[in-house]
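Supplementary Methods. Inverse-folding protocol.

Structures were first reduced to a discrete structure-token string of length 280. This string, shown here, constituted the complete conditioning input.
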């Protein structure tokens, strides 16, 4: 059970942004008229409860639409969710054989077979054990000659699949989502991104030497992410508390890319207690 939910940020927004659907009974308050819930925050006791809750939500969406298009994230945060979903598949509570997936990002340049690639991470931690056929699991190519064409093609594939139904996100300590780093402007579509010093530092835990840590990545753009019909952002641990506060309660700013999620009509932010620490 969540410790608390419905952190409600009320702002006047156009009617078109009103979220009328209530996917989880009892958790959503809609204020009609000028004010609406923009970001729904659910705080869980710990990482395990967070992962179980997230899996319940994702599982429910898949039961409703077995051929759902899922946007997936790498990083350590969604690992618990992936483990739970794999458990649900093994217990035959859900079947992921029909879903189509698109990952947010991939390092550049990197060979997909490298054990440091996000492709490798996803294949071992989710796609294979969850029974997602390889032809349905997509991720930006980390080694291509024509980056622009490859990015355009990724956008085209997402479009052809019908767009993303549910996008799962983690968050960087600097408020990035995917590899959309803080800056004066954010890029709309899939693109080659230069990683910020904070991100390179955070990612260094996965590499042997600092020199091995990639400086670039291919990432879905902010527009690609915002076009998803529903978004689920997960954050765990006190290192994410400041970024979460800025994203959920702060001003909209390109310096905190996740703050733009306040404009999305259907976002759920799932936090453990540490990540929610600064929300007050
Ligand atoms: C990387 C990924 C992001 C992820 C972030 C947080 O930068 N590109 O998509 O959200 O790391 O990772 P973690 O969940 O390991 O903290």
């Amino acid at each position: 059970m969540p410790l608390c939910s419905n952190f409600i940020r009320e702002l006047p927004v156009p009617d078109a942004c009103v979220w009328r659907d209530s996917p989880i009974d009892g958790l959503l308050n809609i204020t009609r008229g000028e004010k609406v819930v923009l970001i729904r925050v659910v705080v869980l006791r710990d990482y395990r409860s967070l992962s179980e809750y997230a899996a319940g939500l994702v599982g429910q969406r898949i039961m409703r639409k077995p051929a759902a298009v899922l946007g997936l994230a790498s990083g350590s945060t969604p690992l618990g969710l992936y483990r739970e979903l794999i458990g649900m598949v093994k217990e035959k509570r859900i079947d992921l054989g029909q879903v189509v997936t698109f990952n947010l990002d991939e390092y550049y340049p990197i060979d997909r077979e490298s054990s440091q690639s996000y492709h490798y991470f996803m294949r071992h931690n989710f796609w294979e054990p969850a029974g997602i056929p390889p032809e349905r699991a997509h991720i930006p190519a980390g080694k291509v000659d024509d980056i622009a064409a490859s990015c355009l093609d990724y956008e085209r594939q997402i479009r052809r699949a019908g767009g993303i139904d549910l996008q799962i996100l983690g968050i960087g300590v600097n408020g990035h989502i995917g590899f959309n780093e803080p800056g004066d402007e954010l890029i709309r579509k899939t693109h080659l991104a230069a990683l910020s010093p904070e991100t390179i530092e955070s990612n260094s835990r996965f590499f042997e030497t600092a020199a091995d840590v990639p400086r670039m990545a291919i990432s879905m753009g902010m527009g690609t992410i915002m076009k998803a019909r529903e978004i689920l952002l997960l954050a765990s641990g006190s290192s994410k508390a400041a970024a979460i506060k800025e994203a959920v309660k702060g001003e909209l700013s390109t310096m905190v890319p996740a703050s733009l999620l306040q404009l999305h009509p259907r976002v759920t932010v799932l936090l453990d207690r540490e990540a929610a620490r600064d929300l007050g």
